[in-house]
Amino acid sequence: MSYWLHDQPGTIVVQPTTLCPMDCTYCYLSERHLKQEMTPLVAAAIADSIGSSWGPVEVVWHGGEPLAVGVERFVELLTPFEPLRKAGRVRHQVQTGGGRPITDAWCDVFQLYEIGVGVSIDGPGALNRHRVDRGGHAMLGRTIASIDVLKRRSIPFTVLSVVGRDGTAQAGRVLDFLRDLGAPWVGFNVEAKEGANSDGQTPSIDHARRFWHDAFEWHRENPDMTVREVDRLIGYFGLSREQRAEDARHDPTPTIGWNGDVVLLSPELLGVRSTLYSDFIAGNVLSDDLPTIIARSADLLYVQEFETGLENCKQTCEFFAFCQGLHAGDRFFEHGTFTATETDHCRNSVQAPVLALAELLRGKGNG
C-alpha cells in the first residue's frame, strides 16, 4: 500500500451509464454521448468485492446521468447491495444533473433504498446557462421542477454548484437562490480544466478570493445552511496543533465504470486515455475484488507519482497542513504529471478561501 492512501475507502463512485442527456459546456466526461450501461452482473461483482472488514462505505452513483438508466434498471443495480445496506455497511448517494426528470417513481426508489440525493445546479438565470441539453436549451426550469418534486415528497437534497468566472462576483446571489430552493448543504466546485473540459475558463485566484470572501460574509448571516468549503476550513481551525501537523491518508476513492474497470484517486480519470498510465485502470471487479485492487495500488505509476507530488507539496507549500495535497486529477489535467504541486484547483479552492478568511479576520481585528 501507498503510505499516503487508506487501505479502506470511505467512498466508492459507481458509473451506471456513460450517457448524459445534457451537454454542459464545462463537462469533463468524454463519453457522455455514448449509451453504455452497467449490467446487474457488474453491480453484483462490486457488491461482492466490498471488503468484509470495511466500515460503512458511501456508494455514489454518478457520471454520466444516473437517472438515464431508468427506474427498473437502477433497481436491478441496487439489488445486490441490499444485504450490505440493511446491515449498515453501505449507504447510497445519487448525484443528478437533472438530465432526466425526478418523478414520483424515482422518489419511491430514493425512499425505499434510503438514497441521499444530490442535485447539480449553478444558480439563478444566466449563472446556470452552462447547463444545457443536447439541443442547447437551458436546463434551469427542468432542474427546479425536479427539486419541487423532491420537496413535495419531503426528500432532502444537497447541491453541487460549479463556479465559473462570471459567478465569482455573485456568491451572495447564488447562495440566496440555493437557500430559497431549500438546500441545507452546498458544495462549490470552481471551474477547472479537467478531462474533456480542456479549454475551460478557469477563474483567477483573485476572482476566486472575492467569491470566498463574499461566501464567508454570507455564511456569517446565514449559519443554518452548510457551505462545504466554509465548514471544512472552520473545522480545520478547530483542530489542535498536533492534529494539524499530522499527515492525512487519502481516500483511494475507487471509481468503477459501467464495464467494471476501476480507477483510483480521482473520478475524473475514468474514461481518460493515456498510454503512459494504462488509461489509469487499476483492475476490474469482474476479475479482482476491491481490497485486492487497492492493496496493489502502490504498483501503479500514477499512484507513485501522486505520492511524490504529495511529498513535494509537504516540503514546499504553506497550505499543505490544511489541504493535504487535495486532488490527484487536477495535477494530471493541468501539468500532464501527478508529481506537480500547485494547480489552479488548489489556488482557487484552497489558497483563495484561506486568504479570504484571513482578510476578513484582519478586518474584524482592525475594527
From TrEMBL:
Annotated Radical SAM core domain residues: 6-228
UniProt entry keywords in alphabetical sequence: Iron, Iron-sulfur, Metal-binding, S-adenosyl-L-methionine
InterPro entries registered for this protein in UniProt: Aldolase_TIM (IPR013785), rSAM (IPR007197), rSAM_sf (IPR058240), Sulphatase_maturase_rSAM (IPR023867)
Gene3D superfamilies in UniProt: Aldolase class I (3.20.20.70)
SUPFAM superfamilies found in the cross-reference section: Radical SAM enzymes
GO molecular function: iron-sulfur cluster binding; metal ion binding; oxidoreductase activity
Claim: Iron-sulfur is one of the keywords in the record: yes
A Pfam family hit: Radical_SAM
Domain of life: Bacteria
Protein name per UniProt: Radical SAM protein
Organism: Amycolatopsis dendrobii
